[in-house]
Specification:
Layout: H1 4-9, E1 12-13, H2 21-24, E2 30-32, E3 37-39, E4 47-53, E5 56-61, E6 67-73, E7 78-79, H3 81-86, E8 93-96, E9 100-106, H4 107-116, H5 118-144, H6 147-162, E10 163-166, E11 169-172, H7 178-185, H8 189-201, E12 205-208, E13 211-214, H9 217-225, H10 231-239
Parallel strand pairs: 1-6
Antiparallel strand pairs: 2-9, 3-8, 4-7, 4-9, 5-6, 5-8, 10-11, 11-13, 12-13
Helix pairs in contact: 4-5, 6-7, 6-9, 7-8
Length: about 240
Amino acid sequence: MYESSERENSPWITLDLEGWAPLTEGRAPVQYRKKAILFHQEDAADAVFIVKSGRLRITSYQEDGAEKQLYIAEKGALVGESSCLNGAVHQSSAVAIVDSLVWKIPVLELQEAMEHNWQLTQRVISLLCRKKDVFYRQILDLSFKQATHRNASQLVNLCRQYGKEHEKGVRISIHFTQQDISGIVNASRVTVGNVFNMFIDQGLLTREGKYFIVTDLEAMRNSAATEPAAPGNVKKQKSG
């Protein structure tokens, strides 16, 4: 049902846990309650984090208080590795969206394990590349797509990762808020609400309790892929 390109571009990142065994075996995870902060932007990057269960939000903040959600770390996701390997401070903050169990790995242990385990090193590199693809897609979407298309893209991503077959379409099986979406698509909560209402009016989306159902996934994909017409094209069409 879901295309591989959607998987690679989705800001909801999940991986199998088995590949992290060289780092997690024999180590007890730490419990972080909902809204608990794992690290702040500009904190010293002295450890990486692997999500055993739950969900983390990775967000970058500006001096004026503006924020941009970079990605959502799901089960199996590694967090903080880029800053640790660069010997830099964290460039973002990490907060638990729900109660989460997370392994905390000191950076020196990560580096030692990578020196002796090529498969682990490949896994870290692969994840870094995947995050690069996520950020690249976000840059393109923010540069060239309108809020409607960006919202549709995230609904498609959620269907890909959490979609369950339903008599009305594809049910997204996790609870998320319009505020969660707004941070990723860089639009206000009001704008996200208006776009969601438009999708509902168009028959592409419905809601049952706290869960959303995409009633026409193909049409939602088309909405996500649609590019706004360039000014030159609009002018040319009118003159014709």
